[in-house]
Every structure is written in structure tokens, then in C-alpha cells.
Amino acid sequence: MRLDVLSIFPEYLDPLRHALLGRAIEKDILSVGVHDLRQWASDVHRSVDDSPYGGGPGMVMKPEVWGPALDDVADGTGPAARAEDLASANPHLLRPQHDDSDTETQAEEDSDLPLLIVPTPAGKPFTQADAQSWAKEHHIVFACGRYEGIDQRVVEDAAQRYRVREVSIGDYVLIGGEVAVLVIAEAIVRLIPGVLGNRRSHEEDSFSDGLLEGPSYTKPRVWRELEVPPVLLSGNHAIVERWRRDQALLRTQAVRPELLAGVELTPQDQSVLDRG
Ligand code: SAM
């Protein structure tokens, strides 16, 4: 997968080359280009923003800067062609892994247009289902807004060269899109086959089956007088799986009850919830 990010603070995107994402870069599963938007600013001050039409506080990001920047990143031309890709921060992490998923092929994406993700609090909420779908993309471009956001015509115009998605990472307002891009990119990249050592670890995560994941435990068996639930030591796989399902159901009911409406419940699931 190819990721390109446009931002006026390229250094904010440095985490994209650390840990599992860095390893994905080393394994050639991922390549990342981070582009300073100001390269496309033409005035002496390299300004990227201007006052809003209709008045009001704050500044709006200029279409004359964003338009050519998105054109170049889509076509691999101009300053986008000269950008160096991010190198992994952790070359030492590349060592043999027990990876059961390297041989899988990525699903073919039927459109040739790259996907443009524009983070904005006014966008559609980003979900795990989006991450699963976008993990099959070949080229994703992220446009990081600042100030009051990007002139809306940029999004309209970009639809000629991209499939455009305006997405929000939650009902709150950040200062800029960079942190949202880190969130979205990490959620996507970990689902690309070969990025996580063991594919089961994301198949059993929260939201994969519509439920929140239940609690997890490791050694020691007793810590500060708190014991690991004995069922986990039983060695009986079926009983452990049932217990995990029950915990996931009960946690979801307690914390995010609205999620249960989208889950197919067996009669046994329903009776666990009724008792909970
Ligand atoms: N005026 C905008 C509004 O009220 O919808 C808020 C702009 S915000 C201060 C600046 C930038 O931060 C946005 O263009 C977007 O890139 C990013 N941003 C802020 N909150 C976000 C969120 N919840 N999800 C995704 N991106 C967000």
C-alpha cells in the first residue's frame, strides 16, 4: 500500500515510521510519502490560508494551494515526485516472524482512482468497517486541514482524480488533521495481511464481531491478591471461548449497549444478557 500525506507540519507524521508501521515499510508492504503543503504555496510568505468569505473568526485553507498539491500527489508530478519516502525508524525490528498471513493476496480494488481521505469533524464517523475496507486499497492520500479547515471546493474538485471520503474520528475538535491521520492510518495498516504477526489478533479485536472485547490477563496467576478468572486456567478451549463471548457481551451491554442492535445473538447470548 502507498500512503501520501499532505500537511503544513510534516514532522507531525513521524510516528508513521515507528513500530509496526516501520516494520511494514521495511517489509515493503507499505511506503509512505509525507509532503509539506507549503511547497505548493506561490507567494513570498508561502501562505496557505486566507480570511473566510462571509466573515467570521479564523482562516480557511486556500484552494490555489491544495488544488495543485492534490493534482501532483495523484499524478506523481512536481514536488510530489521529488519527495523522499519515510524510512523505518527501527531497522532492527526486521527479523524472522511467525507470520501465517504473508501468502494471502490482497483483494483487488475495482477503481483505479486513489482514495482521498479528508479528516474533518464534520465528516462521517470513521469505523472499523472503514478500516477493513480501506486496508485493501493500493493508494491512499490524506489531506490534513488546519485553522477552520480547507475550502470546500477543493473536496469537490478532487473528486475528478480521487474517490473522496470526509471522515471524523470522533465528536470533538482537534487543532489539525495530522493526529486524525495517524489514527486512521494505524487502524488501516494493521489490517493489511502480513503487518500483524498473527492475523487472529485483529480478528478477535473489539468491533470485529460487533462487540467490545472482554478483559485479558497474563502471568502471574495471582497479583496483589487479585486472581486470574479460574476458567482461563481450565485448558478447556470451548469453555474459555464461551466465557470470552459472555464477557464481551456483558461489557458491550454495560459500556456501549447501542452496539448490540447490530450483533446476531444466539439464544445463549440473549440469556447471558438477560442475566447481566
Ligand atoms: N471549523 C471546523 C469545524 O468546526 O468543523 C474545525 C476545524 S479544526 C480546528 C482543523 C482541522 O482539524 C480540520 O480541518 C481537520 O483536519 C482536523 N480535525 C479536527 N477535529 C477532527 C475530528 N474530530 N476528526 C477528524 N479531523 C479533525
UniProtKB/TrEMBL annotation:
It is found in: Cytoplasm. Pfam families: tRNA_m1G_MT. Its EC number is 2.1.1.228. S-adenosyl-L-methionine binds at residues 145, 169-174. InterPro entries: Alpha/beta_knot_MTases, tRNA_m1G_MeTrfase_C_sf, tRNA_m1G_MeTrfase_TrmD, tRNA_m1G_MTases_N, tRNA_MeTrfase_TRMD/TRM10. GO terms for biological process: tRNA N1-guanine methylation. Keywords: Cytoplasm, Methyltransferase, S-adenosyl-L-methionine, Transferase, tRNA processing. Residues 1-74, 113-260 form the tRNA methyltransferase TRMD/TRM10-type domain. Coiled coil: none annotated. The keyword Phosphoprotein does not apply. GO terms for cellular component: cytosol. Residues 101-112 have a biased composition (Acidic residues). The keyword Isomerase does not apply. CDD domains: TrmD-like. One of its GO terms (molecular function) is tRNA (guanine(37)-N1)-methyltransferase activity. It catalyses: guanosine(37) in tRNA + S-adenosyl-L-methionine = N(1)-methylguanosine(37) in tRNA + S-adenosyl-L-homocysteine + H(+). Residues 88-114 are annotated as: Disordered. Belongs to the RNA methyltransferase TrmD family. Specifically methylates guanosine-37 in various tRNAs. HAMAP family: TrmD. Homodimer. This is tRNA (guanine-N(1)-)-methyltransferase. It comes from Corynebacterium alimapuense.
